[in-house]
Please model this.
Amino acid sequence: MINLLYLNKTNQSRPCLKNPTGLALMAALALLMMVQGPAESAPRASMVTIRREVKGFPITVRYARVESGSPGAAKLSINRALRQDALSAMAHMVQIFSSSEAKSNPDRSSFYGERRAEVAFLKGNLISVKNVGFVSAPMMAHPVTSFSAATYDLYTGERVALGRLFKEGWEKRIEEAVNAMAKERISKDQLALNEGQDLPKGDDYSYSFYLDLKSKSLVIFWERYRFTPGVYGDVEFKIPLKDLQDIAREPAIRIR
Model:
């Protein structure tokens, strides 16, 4: 702290500026902080858990929440979207259990509903969240699974499509990469398409993807039943981001 008072030889106090330049600089920095606010911290997310019980059967839904690295309005928009999606998943499972007729003395440990969330990518201005659901209820022939994912811009709050992440021509590049992997699996009897279904086009994947930081990949997914019989579940295709660097638009997905 700079003292603006000094004592003269007669012990009388009077104001003075020992370092006018330093004071001016401090005042300018203080004003800048007042106008801009504190620097935004590194992006960080947490998990929130919602629990319900229907007819004695537990339902658990987890969803991600952005804690930092995103301006107020953008963070609020993303968190609202993530929470609303979680509430919709909870409502769907509640409906399933509410309409289920319990068997006499059912083994309750085998019946439950859950949706797990994972932040697969959190870097720069991007966050990718994937959700995996599972429901096993009385009178169901077999458990039901679900899969979803969404990517958001932490700075604007908008949900991001592939056309935002990659430059013009991304549809062909991603279509070729996915089709090559799909054809290989089909040739090995590891995958089959629905009857009359052709291999999807690149623009079918605009929102059917997530970014994976661990593997540094773009993950394209086929939701169960969308292109393949249900026995194959949700199908994923990982494309290394290093193979897409020439069309990468966002700095966060540029791999050095």
In short: Confidence is low (pLDDT under 50) at residues 1-17, 29-39. The radius of gyration is 27 Å.
